[in-house]
Q: What sequence folds into this?
């Protein structure tokens, strides 16, 4: 194998690896943002403490 072809393959491999890492980082950032938004949404929910204490049963 000549040096030019080897260099080209190595360069393509580095580009693919860099692209894969960039996509992974983007996915992690997106997941982190979504989890923060869900945490805020859950903490802002108001819960009625009287719900679920009485059960009405009719036959």
A:
């Amino acid at each position: 194998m000549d040096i030019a072809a080897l260099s080209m393959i190595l360069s393509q491999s580095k580009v693919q690896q860099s692209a894969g890492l960039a996509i992974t980082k983007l996915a992690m950032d997106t997941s982190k943002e979504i989890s923060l938004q869900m945490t805020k949404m859950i903490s802002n929910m108001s819960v009625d403490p009287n719900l679920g204490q009485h059960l009405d049963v009719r036959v």
About this structure: The chain has a mean pLDDT of 88. Residues 11 and 17 are 10 Å apart (CA to CA). The helical segments are 3-44.
